[in-house]
Automatic annotation (TrEMBL):
Residues 1-33 are annotated as: Disordered. SUPFAM superfamilies: ATPase domain of HSP90 chaperone/DNA topoisomerase II/histidine kinase. The chain crosses the membrane at residues 47-66, 211-232, 239-256, 268-291, 298-316, 322-345, 357-379, 385-402. Keywords: Kinase, Membrane, Transferase, Transmembrane, Transmembrane helix, Two-component regulatory system. Residues 543-635 form the Histidine kinase/HSP90-like ATPase domain. This is Two-component sensor histidine kinase. GO terms for molecular function: kinase activity. It comes from the Bacteria. SMART domains: HATPase_c (SM00387). CDD domains: HATPase_UhpB-NarQ-NarX-like. It comes from Alcanivorax quisquiliarum. InterPro entries: HATPase_C_sf, HATPase_dom, Sensor_HK_TwoCompSys.
Length: 650
């Protein structure tokens, strides 16, 4: 990966047309201005990124401005501080102990107890270990928790109260609070109430103070493993090399979360914090590489030199607490500030990656300043925010790497476009050959259509002519005219279907209506025809149109010949499932509930509806019969009839 963003052409090597640098996507090599579509795309992308970072900033800055509503329960907002010599001092809650380290004894009084039972004592926030006693009972000791998850930066407790303590109607609670050596003690107001009022607040605090603390390093560990895998394949890439060093160093800051799982680790925590101090200058090195700047040698050397010097001072007898507070924390903050200045300069210069890194750096610096103020006692609250905000930097760096990957893929797409244009002549030749094959296929389809129509003429018209000849030989002149008319009608149906093309089924139905209406009028039969609501049916060929017209002709012929109908209604509509429905309803003799087995007409309709992948539904009415033709809106192509559905007469 080339980290010299926007300078991919500096070497003077010839590039295929369409290739561009990281910040020049959409701009041609000739320097032509961006097209309107590309400009709109870039503007929408920037607006989308701005909206995304605005949402991230709003969510991440919530600890600075969001205050959750307190539980609807009895609250102790005052407490007595009991000294070792028995002196009692009244103070308000929340209370910040000015001196780090040691035990503090608080006594809280609840003059009136809530009526609900059972009752719980809820402490939203405290620092380090708490032992709670009442009426001679030891109610809770936070040291016995399964996982305290670094209570030195805030913890919560929900303690059930024995019923024996509630008999007097009032309650006195003694709370012994152990403060860590480097953090001022803190105790929030204490609430007394039922599980309904207190449990939701407690669960939220447990998620924020315990589970989320463990999720954050787990996510950063996954990113570290991914970067390490990339570095193994690109070991000569400076950015990946420094990222592979930065992420493990940064993970050492979360070692305190494992103190409850590995007790032996507590002794080594100050030294691990000293080693993690190298993440500050390492972050500055990574930021310079992201901005295409060469890091100075002294900055690279400080990644190892500063932790080594601090460890040497600790070995010489300097208190580790002083070294952590006086050296490690300031060096980490300086690394963040230096990275923020570099990204601010890059953003002013129009560097795209700088904009992606600026927001996480601002949030990380704000969290670091907040934590220093908490450690110095200038701000109430034991929660240290850096543990939550540090992964935002890793996410920002990951986004930068993904962006560069996307730009590289886009360059690859441009090269593919160039190769595609070089093959245009061959593609045109292939297109010409394809068109010739299509014309041959069309000629073949037409030939097959003619063959099918010839067979249909043979099966239909030749039968009528044979009947006429037989009648003439037997001197049955009275039936010759009727049979000849039927032969002529059959021929007209075939001729009408010959001119049907795609989208002209409605015209064929209109021609059929005009012809059949004259015949029915001569017989004194009324015809009501309405197909305006029939949906469009695509894929119509002459043979398919002939099949549909033959089915209609058979339905009307049966209504006149067998049903003795005096009125016929033809209606087209859209079915509930979206298919086309064409119904033929008459007022003649109802169709028998158990029809005679397999007549020629039904067999012909079954064969033809199968070729259309449709269905025919015949329903006897109180006075007459309704025949419904059900067709798909896309008729099957030649040779596909019956492959998706079995046409049937029901």
């Amino acid at each position: 990966m080339d980290h010299r963003e926007g300078h991919g052409h500096a070497s003077g090597a010839q590039q295929p047309p369409g290739a561009a640098g990281h910040d020049d996507i959409g701009r041609r090599d000739s320097g032509a201005p961006l097209s309107r579509a590309t400009a709109r795309h870039r503007l929408s992308t920037r607006l989308l990124w701005a909206l995304l970072w605005a949402l991230v900033t709003l969510a991440a800055s919530a600890p600075f401005w969001l205050r959750l509503p307190p539980p609807a329960a009895a609250v102790a907002e005052q407490a007595q501080r009991v000294e070792a010599d028995g002196r009692v001092t009244l103070l308000g809650l929340p209370h910040l102990r000015p001196t780090p380290g040691g035990w503090t004894h608080y006594r809280l009084h609840f003059a009136e107890l809530p009526p609900q039972r059972p009752l719980y004592l809820y402490v939203p926030m405290l620092s380090q270990r708490a032992v709670i006693e009442a009426g001679g009972y030891r109610l809770a000791d936070s040291e016995t928790r399964v996982l305290m998850s670094g209570q030195s930066s805030g913890a919560t407790m929900l303690v059930p109260l024995p019923s024996a303590l509630l008999a007097e109607g009032r309650l006195t609670v003694d709370m012994h609070l152990l403060t860590p050596p480097i953090l001022h003690g803190f105790l929030s107001p204490v609430y007394l109430g039922g599980a309904t009022e207190l449990a939701p607040h407690y669960r939220l605090k447990v998620f924020l103070l315990e589970y989320l603390r463990l999720m954050v390093p787990a996510g950063q560990l996954l990113i570290a493993i991914a970067v390490l895998g990339v570095w193994l394949y690109r070991p000569r890439e400076p950015l990946f090399s420094w990222l592979a060093l930065l992420l493990p160093l940064s993970l050492l800051n979360y070692a305190g979360l494992l103190g409850d799982l590995i007790p032996q680790l507590e002794h080594w925590l100050p030294y691990l914090f000293m080693v993690s101090m190298g993440a500050g200058p390492a972050l500055a090195v990574v930021t310079l590489l992201i901005h295409d700047l060469a890091p100075p040698r002294w900055l690279k050397a400080s990644v190892v030199a500063l932790p080594a010097l601090t460890l040497a001072l600790a070995a010489a007898g300097v208190p580790t607490q002083w070294l952590v507070i006086g050296v490690s924390l300031p060096v980490g903050l300086l690394g963040l500030l230096a990275s923020l200045l570099i990204s601010s300069w890059g953003a002013l210069k129009g560097h795209s990656d700088a904009r992606l890194l600026l927001v996480p750096l601002l949030l990380a610096v704000s969290a670091a300043v907040h934590d220093i103020m908490v450690l110095a006692g200038w701000m109430e609250g034991p929660v240290l925010l850096s543990i939550y905000y540090r992964p935002l930097l890793m996410i920002g760096i990951a986004l930068i790497l993904m962006r560069r990957l996307a730009l590289s893929l886009r360059q690859l797409d441009n090269v593919n476009s160039y190769l595609t244009r070089r093959l245009a002549q061959r593609e045109a030749e292939l297109a010409r050959l394809h068109e010739e094959e299509q014309r041959d296929a069309v000629r073949l389809v037409r030939s097959e259509e003619r063959q099918r129509l010839t067979v249909d003429l043979h099966d239909g018209l030749s039968g009528y002519l044979a009947s006429i000849i037989a009648m003439a030989e037997r001197d049955q002149t009275t039936h010759i005219e009727r049979t000849a008319r039927e032969a002529l009608d059959d021929l007209r149906v075939v001729i009408l279907s010959l001119d049907v093309c795609e989208g002209e089924l409605g015209m064929a139905l209109g021609g059929f209506r005009e012809r059949i209406e004259r015949q029915l009028k001569r017989l004194g039969i009324e015809l009501a025809w309405s197909t305006s609501q029939l949906p469009d049916i695509s894929g119509v060929t002459p043979s398919q149109a002939l099949n549909l017209l033959r089915i209609l002709q058979e339905a009307i012929t049966n209504a006149v010949k067998h049903g003795h109908a005096r009125r016929i209604v033809v209606h087209g509509m859209v079915g509930p499932d979206g298919r086309a429905l064409l119904s033929v309803e008459n007022d003649g003799i109802p169709f028998p509930p158990v029809p005679p087995r397999g007549g020629t007409g039904l067999n012909n309709m079954r064969r033809r509806i199968r070729q259309l992948n449709g269905e025919i539904l015949i329903e006897p009415l109180p006075s007459g019969t309704r025949l419904t033709i059900i067709l798909p809106t896309q008729l099957p192509a030649s040779g596909e009839a019956g492959s998706r559905a079995q046409g049937s007469v029901i």
